[in-house]
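Researcher: Let's do a round of design. I'm pasting the structure tokens now; please hold your answer until I've finished.
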């Protein structure tokens, strides 16, 4: 019985990569396997604008379906992969890319995290260095006038 379960699991894992991925509907699949493979590859790099961090291949949103159909339509029309991606980016903005390009103003976004970490580390090190150099506060005793006032308050 246990061996049968293991065998069933092994067969399921072997067959799973060949199954259609995510939310792609059967009526969306292109008849040409080469075009369909290109469409899947492009779809994996495009973000669903409704689901945020899912590719349009994984999303069940109607906008993701529209984008999948648009990718397949453009590929069927003879566009190259780059032309399809450029068309969609032109239409929906660079946010539609799951992995934005690191050029132009995006360098600022890519570099902001490490730059802020370096700045914070420098400020923290400067603060700690200043604290280490600071003279400790010394306690001064009570002045004679304060001692006299304290004795009066305590009734001595």
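Researcher: That's everything. Go ahead.
Model: Designed sequence:
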């Amino acid at each position: 019985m246990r061996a049968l379960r293991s065998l069933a699991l092994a067969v399921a894992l072997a067959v799973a990569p060949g199954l259609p991925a995510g939310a792609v509907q059967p009526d969306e699949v292109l008849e040409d396997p080469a075009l369909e493979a290109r469409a899947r590859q492009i779809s994996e790099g495009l973000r669903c604008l409704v689901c945020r961090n899912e590719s349009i291949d994984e999303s069940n949103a109607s906008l993701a379906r529209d984008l999948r159909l648009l990718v397949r339509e453009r590929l069927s029309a003879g566009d190259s992969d780059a032309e399809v991606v450029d068309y969609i980016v032109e239409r929906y903005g660079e946010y539609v890319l799951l992995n934005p390009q690191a050029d132009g103003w995006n360098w600022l976004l890519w570099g902001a995290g490490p730059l802020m970490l370096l700045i914070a580390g420098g400020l923290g090190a400067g603060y700690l260095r200043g604290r280490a150099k600071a003279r400790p506060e010394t306690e001064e005793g009570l002045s004679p006038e304060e001692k006299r006032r304290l004795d009066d308050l305590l009734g001595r």
